[in-house]
């Protein structure tokens, strides 16, 4: 049979008064310590005794002593109450300054180019905050999974989330290695992809993502085929660099490989544009300082990165 472990309303009332009287062996000194009247302390203790169903003190006109029930209650209640006070102090500390565990979920592809520099500077600025990053393409429920915030592409942000832009919009580009393109005719039209090995991505829902393009004013989704299906962008990108086939990836993810000549863009005139990468989090009236600090830090980091990009300091 299931037992009911719910704490009754008011079950802790009078415990602090009892502990103070037990320590001082005096209702008057306990009242002075807690800043109330002796009558209030006496009433609180009597109410506690009534709920427990046993006398906790032996009272005389000259002294106050603990009964056997009081001794047993003190032995269990004192450490438990001290733990509650300590827990309150810990929680209060987290509510007053950036500290504790900050849990973030992000796609693997953005971790090296966006998250790593942002997290590195944040950890230096806020040493009392521990940052946990779950790199996954899955669009997890933040509240259900215990995450504070998520890094997501703009098209995947739910309507009930607050979004902070971290990057400007960027194109999705089709890329291939110079070795691969030497062996095959370079595609000039979207239909030419039928003759190519195309590296594909499986979405978190199990479906294989088509490649998206813009042809004039029309959005075109091409169902491609090839030798490799991966679950994340870095794997697809790495395979493209090794010459396994063509890949369609966010341009910032491929930027270093493009600059180094390890990849070559194709079909650029048909590239579709993504809204960008955002930090998103639930709307909360009372936001924990650790998340507020991260949001403010992300704003500053994003603004600095955008200024550097405008000056040509970043790719």
Describe this structure in words.
The chain has 315 residues and is an alpha/beta fold. The protein folds into 3 domains: 15-96, Arc Repressor Mutant, subunit A, CATH 1.10.10.10; 100-166 and 279-310, Periplasmic binding protein-like II (D-Maltodextrin-Binding Protein, domain 2); 170-274, D-Maltodextrin-Binding Protein, domain 2. 41% of the residues lie in helices and 22% in strands. The chain has helices at 15-24, 27-34, 38-52, 68-96, 110-125, 142-145, 178-183, 233-241, 251-259, 289-310, and strands spanning 57-59, 64-66, 100-106, 129-135, 149-153, 161-165, 170-176, 198-201, 211-215, 218-222, 229-230, 246-250, 264-266, 272-274, 277-282. The strands form 4 sheets. Strands 7, 8, 11, 12, 13 and 14 form a 6-stranded mixed β-sheet that branches. The longest helix is centred in the first third of the chain and has 29 residues, at 68-96. 26% of the residues are buried.
Topology overview:
Blueprint: H1 15-24, H2 27-34, H3 38-52, E1 57-59, E2 64-66, H4 68-96, E3 100-106, H5 110-125, E4 129-135, H6 142-145, E5 149-153, E6 161-165, E7 170-176, H7 178-183, E8 198-201, E9 211-215, E10 218-222, E11 229-230, H8 233-241, E12 246-250, H9 251-259, E13 264-266, E14 272-274, E15 277-282, H10 289-310
Parallel strand pairs: 3-4, 3-5, 8-11, 8-12
Antiparallel strand pairs: 1-2, 5-15, 6-15, 7-12, 7-13, 7-14, 9-10
Helix pairs in contact: 1-2, 1-3, 1-4, 2-3
């Amino acid at each position: 049979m299931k037992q009911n472990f719910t704490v009754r309303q008011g079950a802790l009332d009078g415990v602090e008064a009892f502990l103070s009287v037990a320590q001082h062996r005096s209702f008057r000194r306990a009242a002075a310590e807690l800043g109330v009247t002796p009558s209030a302390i006496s009433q609180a203790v009597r109410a506690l005794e009534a709920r427990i169903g046993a006398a906790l003190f032996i009272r005389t006109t000259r002294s106050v002593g603990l009964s056997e029930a009081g001794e047993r209650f003190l032995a269990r209640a004192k450490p438990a109450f001290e733990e509650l006070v300590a827990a309150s102090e810990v929680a209060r500390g987290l509510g007053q300054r950036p500290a504790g565990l900050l849990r973030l979920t992000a796609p693997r592809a953005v971790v090296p180019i966006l998250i790593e520099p942002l997290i590195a500077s944040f950890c230096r600025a806020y040493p009392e905050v521990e940052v946990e990053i779950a790199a996954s393409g899955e669009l997890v429920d933040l509240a259900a999974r215990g995450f504070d915030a998520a890094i997501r592409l703009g098209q995947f942000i739910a309507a009930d989330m607050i979004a902070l832009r971290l990057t400007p919009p960027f194109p999705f580009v089709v890329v291939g290695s110079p070795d691969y393109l030497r062996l095959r005719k370079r595609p000039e039209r979207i239909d030419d992809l039928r003759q190519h090995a195309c590296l594909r991505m499986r979405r978190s829902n199990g479906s294989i993502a088509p490649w998206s393009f813009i042809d004039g004013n029309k959005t075109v989704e091409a169902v491609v085929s090839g030798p490799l299906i991966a679950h994340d962008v870095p794997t697809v990108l790495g395979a493209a660099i090794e010459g396994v086939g063509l890949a369609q990836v966010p341009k910032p993810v491929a930027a270093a490989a493009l600059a180094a000549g390890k990849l070559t863009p194709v079909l650029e005139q048909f590239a579709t544009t993504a809204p960008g990468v955002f930090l998103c989090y639930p709307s909360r009236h009372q936001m924990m300082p650790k998340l507020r600090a991260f949001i403010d830090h992300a704003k500053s980091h994003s603004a600095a990165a955008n200024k550097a990009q405008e000056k040509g300091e970043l790719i």
